[in-house]
Each structure stands twice: as structure tokens, then as C-alpha cells.
Write a structure and sequence with these properties.
alpha/beta; Rossmann fold; 6-stranded parallel beta sheet; about 15% strand
Length: about 220
């Protein structure tokens, strides 16, 4: 029998804010982000502008260029425990636990940073997740990303690439998102939920036969 999967977005779905933004503020407070890092971001934004606004801005991780990957991962662990963990919705914890009790495979798909994604996976005991992939060379980030950027159409691509075929039954599976950009991926699942939508987004979700839940 094919597996039932429960796919969760993270920012705005599992927590009430943006994980990456919390981490960047944490790095600034620790003196780990500098003017040259912001300059790298600006340069990369100009160089990737022809790939679309979302990729050039949200998908732009050039401020990590030259930074030691091990050190950043350790800082991410500290930030997660001190500044992110308490922001996880209680209802999200309950929902994930319910799926786990029903033997559904939990998968996280989020545009957040890979080391933050790993913190969520470890906390919830989840084995599979797809986030932004950062290129490293000699233990340092190059500032470049790799593979499919998991936002909008990219999320749908990831679902089609990794969660279809003979292993999963998407018609019986579940997906949770919170943004208009999640609709394309949500519609691939038999049980799709829009989390905490405003009035306009709730109307769009209903028109697309997507259920509404509030965490």
C-alpha cells in the first residue's frame, strides 16, 4: 500500500514569523553579519534580477558568502533553541503529532535555510525535508544556492519530483501552507489546508477547494 504523507510549510504555518529573519537578526546581534555581507547580497540581487523578483530577493543567500558552515550551523542551533522554539504554534505541534500517531510520513518543504530546517526536523523527529540548499566549498558557503528553490512553483516541482510515483498516495495525503504561493503545491494533495488566512486568502482557498484551519 502506498504511503500517506503530511507535508508542512514552516514559516507562518508552524511558527508565527519567518525563521530566516529571526536568524539574521540573531547574527546581527552577535556581530556575525557585516556591511560587506549586505554588499554581497546587493550585488547578487542585481546579478539575478533577470531570474525574477522572488529568486533575486527571497532566494538570495549571498550574505553567507565566505562564512564557515560549521560555525553558522552551531549558531543556528542556539538561535532555534532561544528564539524560535517558543514561537511554534501549539496547534501545529498537535497536528504533527496526530499525523505521526496515524503513521503518516511527515515532510517539511520550506524556503528556509537548511540548518534551520534541520533544527525543525530534529525537534519533531522528522526524517525528510526540503529547504534552500546552500553551496559550500572547503567548509565555507559560496553564497550560491543549488537545486530547486522551494517557493511557489518550486514547491510543486519538489512534490512532483520526490513525493509521487509508486511510493506515495497524494490523493489520500495532507498538505499545509499559509500563503497564496502555496496553492499550486497544496492542490496536488487530496487533503489541503490553508493555515491562518486573512479574509481575501480564505476566499481564494475556498474557491480552490482548499480547507481552512487556524493555528
Amino acid at each position: 500500500m502506498k504511503k500517506i504523507v503530511a507535508v508542512f510549510d514552516i514559516d507562518g504555518t508552524i511558527i508565527d514569523f519567518f525563521s530566516e529573519r529571526i536568524f539574521l537578526l540573531f547574527l546581527l546581534s552577535k556581530g556575525k553579519l557585516f556591511i560587506n555581507d549586505l554588499f554581497n547580497y546587493a550585488v547578487n540581487l542585481l546579478q539575478t534580477a533577470d531570474q525574477g523578483c522572488i529568486f533575486a530577493t527571497k532566494g538570495n543567500k549571498a550574505y553567507f558568502k565566505g562564512k564557515d558552515s560549521t560555525q553558522i550551523e552551531k549558531l543556528a542551533h542556539t538561535c532555534f533553541r532561544k528564539h524560535i522554539l517558543h514561537r511554534i504554534f501549539a496547534r501545529a505541534k498537535e497536528k504533527i503529532k496526530q499525523h505521526q500517531q496515524q503513521q503518516h510520513e511527515i515532510v517539511f518543504i520550506s524556503g528556509t535555510l537548511p540548518f534551520l530546517l534541520n533544527e525543525y526536523k530534529n525537534y519533531f523527529g522528522v526524517n525528510k525535508g526540503y529547504g534552500t540548499r546552500l553551496e559550500t566549498k572547503n567548509g565555507k558557503f559560496t553564497g550560491k544556492t543549488m537545486g530547486i528553490y522551494p517557493y511557489g512553483e518550486g514547491k510543486a516541482e519538489i512534490v512532483k519530483k520526490y513525493l509521487t510515483g509508486n511510493e506515495y498516495d497524494l490523493s489520500r495525503s495532507f498538505a499545509y501552507g499559509n500563503h497564496l504561493s502555496d496553492i499550486k503545491s497544496l492542490k496536488l494533495f487530496g487533503n489541503a489546508f490553508m493555515i491562518n488566512p486573512n479574509k481575501k486568502l480564505a476566499a481564494i482557498a475556498r474557491a480552490e477547494s482548499i480547507k481552512i484551519e487556524y493555528f
